[in-house]
Design goal:
Layout (H helix, E strand, L loop, with lengths): L4 E7 L4 E9 L3 E4 L4 E8 L2 E5 L2 E5 L4 E4 L5 E5 L5 E8 L1 H12 L5 E3 L3 E2 L5 H12 L5 H18 E3 L9 H13 L6 H8 L3 H12 L3 H18 L4 H7 L5 H12 L3 H9 L4
Antiparallel strand pairs: 1-2, 2-9, 3-8, 4-7, 4-9, 5-6, 5-8, 7-11, 10-12
Length: 273
């Protein structure tokens, strides 16, 4: 059996993260990120659901997730997964996109999967340089060329939101956005939205692409990530992000991110040494 590896790096120059998950069989629950994810399958096959559409992905396919794109994936065969990705915060993407296109809008990837993409080799090369913690400008050059090609082939500018959640659902998710560190119940969301519980669950899931509970846990994990980046302790991060205990925090963090909270924090503390 292939030994499991979960490796993460943070590149200070580019301001991006790089992950490699090798030999894992983990199912990732429905969730979203507040940043762009550009990844590829080196080996293995997965079933991906993104924004309520289904995909079968495998070796050579590139994944392109916009911030807030809800998605889940799981293994569909007995092969272990070898998956590699880079994560780009919106501010970083906006800066580099402006340099490339002279447009100040955040780009939006049109589809989450590019099958047998020509850009895989460039992404693989860049990812390896990030894993090796290269400091030369070849790494920056590869990053710019990759983003240039992805923007040219797979994006459109975000000029206006084509869909906005109903007023009732907006009340529910905005309440979770503002109060995620506190206990929140389905009764709370029902009262705030003015919808009965079943209608709330059905409408929220249809409009946001994930259930209210999945949305809340994702908000908490994303907040915890920011806290860990700043060097706040695991215990404080868990409490301030709304997790009831350390084991609950670790379980959800690893399920959503693929790393334990400590592994994630280490990519920033190790970088400072």
């Amino acid at each position: 059996m292939t030994q499991e590896e979960r490796i993460a790096r943070f590149d200070k120059v580019l301001g991006i993260e790089a992950y490699r998950f090798k030999g894992i069989m983990q199912k990732f629950p429905n969730h979203f990120h507040e940043y762009y994810v550009i990844g590829f399958i080196e080996n293995g096959s997965r079933h991906l659901s993104c924004k309520n559409k289904e995909y079968m992905i495998g070796t050579g396919d590139i994944l392109l997730f916009n911030p807030m794109d809800s998605h889940t994936c799981e293994q569909i065969d007995d092969q272990t997964l070898d998956y590699r990705c880079i994560n780009i915060k919106p501010a970083v993407m906006q800066k580099i996109a402006y340099e490339i296109t002279s447009q100040n809008d955040l780009p939006e990837f049109i589809e989450p999967v590019v099958f047998r993409s020509e850009q895989v080799s460039l992404l693989r090369e860049l990812h390896q340089m990030l894993m090796d913690e290269r400091s030369d400008f070849q790494k920056e050059e590869a990053f710019y060329f990759l983003i240039e090609q992805l923007l040219a082939n797979y994006t459109k500018p975000i000029l206006a939101k084509s869909f906005e959640a109903s007023a009732e659902i907006q009340k529910a998710y905005k309440y979770m956005d503002e109060n995620f560190s506190e206990p929140i119940s389905l009764d709370d969301l029902s009262n705030i939205s003015g919808l009965n519980k079943y209608t709330l669950l059905r409408s929220f899931t249809r409009q946001k692409g994930l259930t209210p509970y999945q949305y809340l846990e994702t908000i908490r994990v994303n907040h915890a990530k920011k806290q860990l980046e700043q060097g706040i302790t695991l215990i404080e991060s868990a409490g301030q992000s709304g997790f009831t205990d350390q084991s609950h925090f670790t379980k959800f963090f690893k399920n959503f991110i693929g790393l334990t909270p400590k592994q994630y924090q280490n990519i920033f503390t190790d970088n400072d040494k």
